[in-house]
Every structure is written in structure tokens, then in C-alpha cells.
Amino acid sequence: MYIEWIKNSVMMQRGVGADRDPVTHHLTEEIQKKFHYTIGPYSDPVMTIKPGDRVIVDTRDAFEGAIKSETDKPSELLTLPYLNPQNGPIMIEGAEKGDVVAVYIEKMVPRGDDPHGICCLIPQFGALTGTEYTATLNDSLPEMVKRVRLDGEHIYWSKRHTLPYRPHIGTLSVSPEIDSINALTPDNHGGNMDVPDIGPGSITYLPVRSPGARLFIGDAHACQGDGEVCGTAVEYASTTTIKVDLIKNWKIDWPRMENAHAIMGIGSARPLEDAGRIAYRELIRWMVSDFGFDQWDAYMLLSQCGKVRLGNFVDPKYTMGAMISKDYLQE
Amino acid sequence: MYIEWIKNSVMMQRGVGADRDPVTHHLTEEIQKKFHYTIGPYSDPVMTIKPGDRVIVDTRDAFEGAIKSETDKPSELLTLPYLNPQNGPIMIEGAEKGDVVAVYIEKMVPRGDDPHGICCLIPQFGALTGTEYTATLNDSLPEMVKRVRLDGEHIYWSKRHTLPYRPHIGTLSVSPEIDSINALTPDNHGGNMDVPDIGPGSITYLPVRSPGARLFIGDAHACQGDGEVCGTAVEYASTTTIKVDLIKNWKIDWPRMENAHAIMGIGSARPLEDAGRIAYRELIRWMVSDFGFDQWDAYMLLSQCGKVRLGNFVDPKYTMGAMISKDYLQE
Amino acid sequence: MYIEWIKNSVMMQRGVGADRDPVTHHLTEEIQKKFHYTIGPYSDPVMTIKPGDRVIVDTRDAFEGAIKSETDKPSELLTLPYLNPQNGPIMIEGAEKGDVVAVYIEKMVPRGDDPHGICCLIPQFGALTGTEYTATLNDSLPEMVKRVRLDGEHIYWSKRHTLPYRPHIGTLSVSPEIDSINALTPDNHGGNMDVPDIGPGSITYLPVRSPGARLFIGDAHACQGDGEVCGTAVEYASTTTIKVDLIKNWKIDWPRMENAHAIMGIGSARPLEDAGRIAYRELIRWMVSDFGFDQWDAYMLLSQCGKVRLGNFVDPKYTMGAMISKDYLQE
Amino acid sequence: MYIEWIKNSVMMQRGVGADRDPVTHHLTEEIQKKFHYTIGPYSDPVMTIKPGDRVIVDTRDAFEGAIKSETDKPSELLTLPYLNPQNGPIMIEGAEKGDVVAVYIEKMVPRGDDPHGICCLIPQFGALTGTEYTATLNDSLPEMVKRVRLDGEHIYWSKRHTLPYRPHIGTLSVSPEIDSINALTPDNHGGNMDVPDIGPGSITYLPVRSPGARLFIGDAHACQGDGEVCGTAVEYASTTTIKVDLIKNWKIDWPRMENAHAIMGIGSARPLEDAGRIAYRELIRWMVSDFGFDQWDAYMLLSQCGKVRLGNFVDPKYTMGAMISKDYLQE
């Protein structure tokens, strides 16, 4: 059933549940009841699954549906920190500190009768404006809302522009050990990474730091450019199908990603160069531990063939991924 | 009883409890029982006080006493994220989101029969080394521990050097609204700011974001240089006496500080310039709202007489304070 | 003779010399005589060309051939600031402040009887080490040299790895108005941008700031990963053929690039987010002035479809390019 | 004639001209003729002096007198990069790469019949606004000019505020080896550091990188706050008296400063934390080489008693100084 690369993925090679017949769960709005705005160990689980299981998740858009039309004012309708609602936490049986949770995204489809996405300019938010942290005395940029129709193929942006539907999950996390981190911030637990590669056909690996791992998911994007420069993607409500597995005793420090073509280390930090440093170091560590590389060879080789993805440079921490093509991993 | 400037401080002018006869509480180790490693709304209060009350707090050192001798290895004895133990949370009656808690530090004395402090070099921590965020492939610096005797006057650093006892509180916080942030990180809730001015004779103002404010305090330093460059100060166990008051309906975004000589805005962020931007903007806002300044006049005047304190540039976020002498605030 | 997109490029649409029959010049080592280590207005021109002319440039590798074998020590053979030798300055007739020089790279071939490239680890240089600026007390990483054979198709990296030949120019500049900037640093004059897209089939636009523009070129890379993480690419001696044109009265602030598929704004700064901000703002300005976009529409659209290239995050300033596909530029 | 500390300064202990009877030169406007806007090896010397000589320098204000009244518009009167005019270059006999030039500032007095200073808000310049590098889409802050009378005691800022006259030199440099760097940018050659401690009673040490050192001086400030937050100090025309000496074979990487009370390392970089890292590392190196410290002891001690001065965080590079009191240097 799985295509070739997945058979050889870390998830399928080392996942506790790789050989199980997966049970499929549906995390509906009714089951979720209360969405979460922080990722941490203090919230009540919505379900417990076994490694290898599949979950169909009904996600809300990042504004939780509050922005409905192009005349809406984000500053009047959005209330910090109650943004970017997350589904979960989903408990994974047997997950303990020192393990890794693998999340394979199988499918993402728009949800609801009137599938649409929202992109907006929020005051003091975005890469090309003063913000809460890059504090300036300038007036804010104008508020602005764009509401666009979409389907499983396209986003109907404007008369002039149609964008391809390139869905991905903006915020994917397991719980930190003791912190509870707002859903806007990425860090070594995952969080609001906004990496466009984390879509259907990708496996994300997240370091477990608390019992049961406590998986959170949300912030579906119908598409997003590198860096999410204005601060928002095409934010939409999705039905997202994931397969979740557990790898025991795999010590990783930061999220990693794998797809048909490449493996990726993911760093989140400010300034942006630190996100890049983390990403490349995590990638080197992976190449050394699993693919027979000497550390310095990996460092010099990546200087020739490493690829970088800027996730976002608008969130409280910025996210960068560093990749190497699987072509270079064969021995 | 209070010296002149305190009578005119925001705390005494606007504090709900300024005219009350304060009750003195003692937050002993027995009452505290469990120390906290995150600042958030999810922990059980250790006591409730009324605005204007005094609390004598028995703080532990940042390593919770785990480092005892100069042959100890920090990497073997310290376990992230269980560092920098905090007393609290202390609930302040009547405190609500939109208010401000004022913490006047009256006194800090060394605690215990054998008063001493610990300074150490921790691998991948400090300003002049690669770290978890500024990720490098370099070997770590050597681990090192310095254990020094101290009393209420001096720190006996070495045969060559005696340092003055200049105590202050490294970590002072109220709870974020929904996040729970590890005790190593400063942000707009206060946290691990490491500002040496936050010692006896200072009043720190913290923006309330949750019911009861939830005051946390810890990380006493017998002295500290600007920036805490090696990553640690003279960390010691203290008995710290604070007077806590509540100012209703004072909207501030970041911590502020006041002492006999100056007022200060405090920013915590990376990169460091953003901490400075936040600090100066917060100070300008204070000058405009309370001291009759035009925004641009304040901006230009601070360019001539503003003073900056680098708290730390070693924590997950860096802290900077921006000050103006009270001489310039008189009309 | 030119393929379709070039006919429609800014260079061919607005270049003063677009319709001229180009003269071909050859900038040999003999003509160049002295290579340059700074980009500025103080050096003697090596030749003067007319807009539209072609120049075949014999470039030296970034180490000027000093590193010859894998047992060489870069720290013994390289002397700062005499690194990254540049050909030029080439004067372009009629170029004045306020104009733009267009550099179309036609071809890059390895030079010499023994075509090879050098990659090395230089102490205190690279993204994953302390450096002169990110000053640490750690020991340096080991020095290391990799010398690899190459031809116009491949780079023979190791028994395990063959890399595709993806040549580009690391350092391309016109002179600043009064500064003379070392060849290791990129800025708004171009300089050491290390953007892999600036290879055959690309047109780079550089803002003229001094009479004659004073074009410098050097630092050929046989291939390079995003960010040039270890500090060096496959540095080689090339014969590079460029066609140079002049666009009068085109006010741009930072370098721009155009190829068959996309247009790009290029920013160079620290921290890295500032390079990204510059790049995206320059791109927005281009979209607004030449492609009929409203500023806010461009900002929001790029948040969905902008692509980012990390040039380097190892030089004294870091370089990032922000692109949009030409598909989105059609009206 | 000299006060005690100067006798023991590096300048007087090791300066080639310490025992000479100094000749006094006067660098008038007539002798200077042409002021310089870059610091480099390509300009014609205005005078040659012997180590130990005194020079009285007539400096122009940073706007070269172009801003005359409070109704002037900086954006109309100032032309980048022709800002911050510098006197010099002054050649120091015998100075060679690897030496150090010492500049003792003896006196700074206002110049002219109508002593005054100018402070202004310049579009896209300052710490609390988007800039050329921190590129935003926000509208610029309002332009604004403040012209203030001053004398050798006070600056008459406004009816409400009189500031003390605390003069210092904003821009002090020797030439880089091959670069020529605009007068707005600080770096390891000195440049536009804007460190308020570099005033009368201070000795600044600058690493010589070209024959004769080529000393430049300008940008007198009648006073300045930490960070120069709005982008400008009280900029004025001064008569500044300096004594210049030469220390042979003293290898320093970045500028250093000494006064009666402290020694300081000075770093200039972005992000700001890197300026701090450089400053502290340079200070540690000084403590180790000249004051008998072990490197790790120095690092840990500075964590307790180091003091930081933020020079500016508005220039193309930011400047920070790290100090230790001379009390701690005695053995």
C-alpha cells in the first residue's frame, strides 16, 4: 500500500506500530470540544491511540473562524493569546521522554460547505513592519483581510491570480517537558514552524519530552510562501489525516522531517541565523548517526548541496529547515 | 518610615495597599515545599496576601544546592529544565488582568550557617561559547565551579579579589495568561531578567495577566556584572524581604522598575537590539503617560541622557533596561 | 539567437546596448595583471566597454591558487584581507549614478589543464563555529582542505559522492560611491553574495553609484549549497562569459536578479532576518513599479508564493534572495 | 603635569613618544580643506606628526553645518553618504601594521561665536523605526530638528531641561588595511563608535593596519545617551585637543579604551550581542596578556563585575564596550 520511500523511512523501519493494522480515529469538533492555545503538559487528553494508528483531524483555521469577510478588522476580532487553535492533545501509548513521535501526513482536504481561506494583515505582525519585539514608534500598517475560495486543486486568489493548492500543517507539536508554550511560537518541541514541506507525503519526527508525548496539531495552510512574509498564509479549516508512530530510544534535540526526496533538520530561534545553525547542526547529527558520515565530511558536503527552507520569519521565533537530498545518503 | 522617594513612587501613590498596615508573611521552605521551574497559571498557590503586605522569602540558589564543591561537574549534577527554582506562586488579592503588581525589595540577606555563593561554567551556556541556539560544532568550554564565601558586605572571590555584596533578584515574575515559561527565560511577564538594579531599594512593576497575579521569585545573586557574561552570577540562598502592592488599571506591556534615582523600562528578546528597542519604547510610553512628555521630545531627549543596563545576554532571551534619571522627570 | 525570456527581460527591453552588435573582449590574466581585494572607486580600470558588449573573464579561485593540496593549512597560506581576488574594474561607457548595470552570465567553464576545485574549513570561519564577530572562547574547528576534480558536468567529490556542476559567480559588484569594501562582504553594491542562482542564464541588476559603474567579478563556484554552511563552496578558476548592458535612470536600492523563471530582490545584512526583509521589500518595490501590483497585494501574495534563497550565512554580512515566479507577473 | 593614572597608562608606559617634549599642531579648517566621508588608505594626509605630539583639531558637526534651524528638513539638506565629516588623515611617524595608536583626549570645547548643537530625527534612521536594513513598509517617523545653545558647562535643551556638557568624540579611527569605510560605520578600525566614554580624560587604543596609521577624527557630541536611541546626539562643532602616541608591536584586534577608572574592550557588529561578545573577549584578552589573569578566571570574574556601555544601536554596525574597574586589576 505504501509507496517505496515510506517503506524505507525511519518511521516504517523503526516505528513500534509499523507492522500493526492501524485503527482509524476521527477527532471531530465534538470530541475536541475545547481547542488549545498552548502546547504543554497541563491540558486534558482528547484521545489515546496506539503507535501506527491513523487519526482524521478536523482542524479550525488559525483565527478560529472569527474573520469572516474582507471588511472585518482583525484587531477587533482577534484576542491574543487566544489564536491558532490546536487539536489535541492526543496521547500515544508507550511514548516516554527520549522517544520520538513520527507524524506522517496522508491527506489534507478543505472542510465545510464553503471551502475558503483567510489571509490578513494584522497590526504589529509580519516581517515588514515593526512588531511587539522589533519595537518601533511607526504607525502600524493598514489592516486588511483577503477571503479566498479554494478547493482541493486551487486557491482563487484574485481575478489575476490562481494559486495551486499546496496544503501543509503550520503547527505540529508534542508537549515540552514542563513549559506550556503558546501556539504562535515554534521551538524544539515543534510548534508554529510554518514549514511548507510538512504537508501530505511528509513524515515529521518530534522529540518526546513527556509521558504519552501529547501530540497537538492545527494551523492548516492551503498554501504558503517561504517565510510567510505578511504574517499569514491561506489559513483554512481542514480535514487532515495523519498516521502516527513511535520510535523508541531515538535521541533527537529538534524536529526532523523526511519525505520522498530529502531529510531535513528544523531549527526555530531568533535571530534567523541561529535557526539556520540549529537546522544544519541537527541535519549533520542525523547524517553522522544514521548515514555513515564523518562530521566534517557532512559539514563540507552540505556546503555544496544543502538546501534551506525558510518556514517563517514572523513568529516569536523564526523557523528554518536544512535539507539534503536522499540521493546523497546512499552508500 | 519610608524614605522620601518611596512616598512619591507609583507604588505608594497608587497602590491599593499603600495605606494599610502591612501584615508580614514568611514563605519558608516548609511552606513552599515544592519549588517551581516554570512560571505559569497551572501551579498551586503557596499563599495569598493582601496588597501592601510584606513577605519574607527563603530562596534557594539557582542550582538548588546541587553544586557543593569546586570539583563538582555541573553537567552531572544539573538536569534541564529543572533549574532556577522559584518560590511562589503568591496570590495577590484583587489582582486582575490589566492591573500591575509592584514589588519593593526591602532587604536581602544570605541564608544558612555557611553563607556562600556558586559561580560556574556550564557546557553550551554563556555568552562566549556556542550554545543550544547559537549551535556550533566546537567542543564545549571546560566545566568549572567557583564556590565563594560571602557575608552581608563582601564576597570573598579569591585571594586577589574581594567583591562588594550587591544583592538582587535574578528572576521575578507574575504569571503569563496561558503560557507556562521555564524559569530560565525572561519575557514580558518578567522572568529571568538578571537586572542588577532589581535589588534592595527598587520597585519592580509587573503586568498582571491572570487572576491573583501569581507572583514568583527566586534566583538571588550576591552580585552580578552587566550581561552575566559567563552565564552565572554569584548564585546564593537568600532571605529576601519584599513588600507587594497592587495598582489597579495600569496598562503596561513590559516590566518597569523604579528606584530613588531613575525609572526604567525592561525588554527581553533576541536579538539583543530588540530587547533595547522594547526597553526604550516602554520607557518613552511611561514618560508620555505619566510625566508630561511629548513622544518625540522623549525620544530625542533619551538620545542625550538615556542610560542602559544590560541584564543578561546568556539566557534564552536577553534582557536590557533603559533608564532616565528622575532629575529629568520634574516639571 | 536569444531564447524567448531574454528578449523580454529588463536588460533587453531597456538596455542601451540591446540592439548593438556586441564586441567581445577578453579579460585575461595578462590584462588584469593585479587582482583586487576591495570593491571601490580607487582602483585603475582594466578596460572600458560599451553597453551590450560581451566580456570573457579569466577568474582566479577565491584562494588565488594558494591552496594546492589536501595537506595544506589554510591558516598558513591565506592572509586576510587578501582573499577572494576580483577581476575588474570594467568601466561601462555612459554609466552614471542612478543607472543600473545588467550582467547576463552566458557561460562558465573550468579553466586550466587540471580543472579542480577547493573547499576548506578555515579557522573562525563558517556558520557552525565561533568567528571574529560571533566571538567565543572555544577552540577553533580543525582546518581541513578538500581538493576535487571537476569538469563541465560533474564534481568528483569522493568515491561516494559526485555532484552536478552548477556554476555561478559568488562575487559580482559595481563600486560603491565612496566606500571601498573588501571582497568578502556583500552589501547593496552586490559583493560577495554567494547566490547560486547567479549563474549561466541569469541577469543580475546592480545599482550604479559611481561614474562608469566599475564592474568587478570573481569567486566562481562550481557548485554551492544554500547558505554555504562550512564557509566555502567548490572554489575554482573559471572562464566566465558575460554580456553587460546599461539601463539608464532605473532607481533600485539593492541588487536584483532575473532568469527564465523568476525575478528576485537580494538583501545583504546581519542579522539574517534583515537580509530577508530587504530582499522581500526590494521585490515588492519591483512588483509595484513594473508589474502593476498594489503594494499590499504584493505583500500578501508573496506570503503565499514567495520563494527564498539563502545565499550565505557565513560572510561579514549574510545574503538572502526573495523571488516570485514569472507566472504570477503576467497581467 | 599629568595626573597619576596617566603616568601608569599603557600610553605613557609604552608609548614611543611618552618622554618627548610634545609639539603642538593645529589642524584648522584651512589646513584640512577637504573633509572626508570614508576612513581608508586612499586619501591625502593633512599632516604628519611624531609620536607624543599634540594636535588641536577643529571639527565640524556631523551634518557639516547644513542643518541650521528647527524648520530645516534633514532629508532635503543631507546627502548620503556625505555625512559625518572627518578631519585627517594625520600620519604618525613610524606607525606600521601591528602597532597601536593611542589617542588621549585632553580637551573639547565648543567652536564658533554661536556655540550650539543639533539633534534631529532623520527618516529611516534611529533605533525605534524601520531603516534601510530593518526594512519595513511603514511610513517614516516625522522629521524633526532641535537646535540647542550650549557652552562648556551646559546644553540648554528646553525650558524644562538643561543637560550637562559631557563631550566626547563619536568617530575616531585609523585606516583599515585596504577597505575604505564610510564615516557612519564602526568596525575594528574604530569608526563611528559613539561611545560616550571616549571624551576628555580617556585614552583610546586603535590597531594600526596601514603605514602611518592614518588617524581620522570627527563627530563631536556635546552629550549622548547610551545607544543614541533617536540616531543623533547633540552634534556640534568642536575644538578638540588630543595627544597621540604610538605603541610598537602591540597586537590588538579591536579598539580598546582606558581612563582613570577602568579599561574597556570595544566591539562593533550586528546583531548587538555580537558587539558585546567581541567587547568582552577583547577585554579578557587584555586582562590575560597584561594583568596576570587566567582566561577562565577573567571570564568568571567579569560575570560578577563587568560593566557594559552601549555606544550606539543605530549605526550600520552597533557598538558596545565592556569594562572592568582598575580596582580589580591590581595584583
Task: Describe the fold and architecture.
The first copy, chain A, is α+β, with helices and mostly antiparallel strands and 331 residues long. Chain A has a single domain, classed as Jelly Rolls (Sandwich). In chain A, 14% of the residues lie in helices and 34% in strands. In chain A, helix 5 packs across helix 6. The longest helix of chain A has 19 residues, at 272-290. The model of chain A has no long low-confidence stretch (mean pLDDT 97). Chains in contact: A-B, A-C, A-D, B-C, B-D, C-D. The C-D interface holds C 37-38, 40, 42, 81-82, 132-137, 176-182, 253, 267, 269-271, 274, 277-278, 280-282, 284, 295, 299 and D 37-38, 40, 42, 81-82, 132-137, 176-182, 253, 267, 269-271, 274, 277-278, 280-282, 284, 295, 299. Chains A, B, C, D: This is Acetamidase/formamidase. Chains A, B, C, D: It comes from Pollutimonas bauzanensis. Chains A, B, C, D: It holds the Pfam family FmdA_AmdA. Chains A, B, C, D: GO terms for molecular function: hydrolase activity, acting on carbon-nitrogen (but not peptide) bonds, in linear amides.
Features:
hydrolase activity, acting on carbon-nitrogen (but not peptide) bonds, in linear amides (chains A, B, C, D), 21 strands, alpha+beta, globular, about 15% helix, nine-stranded mixed β-sheet, six-stranded mixed β-sheet, Jelly Rolls, about 325 residues, FmdA_AmdA (chains A, B, C, D), Acetamidase/formamidase (chains A, B, C, D), 6 helices
Which helices and strands, and how do they pair?
The structure is a homotetramer of 331-residue chains.
Chain A: H1 4-7, H2 10-14, E1 24-27, H3 29-32, E2 38-39, E3 47-49, E4 54-59, H4 74-77, E5 86-92, E6 100-110, E7 116-121, E8 144-150, E9 154-156, E10 162-164, E11 168-173, E12 181-182, E13 186-187, E14 190-191, E15 202-207, E16 215-221, E17 238-247, E18 256-259, E19 262-269, H5 272-290, H6 295-305, E20 307-312, E21 318-325
Parallel strand pairs in A: 1-4, 3-5
Antiparallel strand pairs in A: 2-12, 4-17, 5-16, 6-15, 6-17, 7-8, 8-9, 9-10, 11-14, 11-16, 13-14, 15-18, 18-19, 19-21, 20-21
Helix pairs in contact in A: 5-6
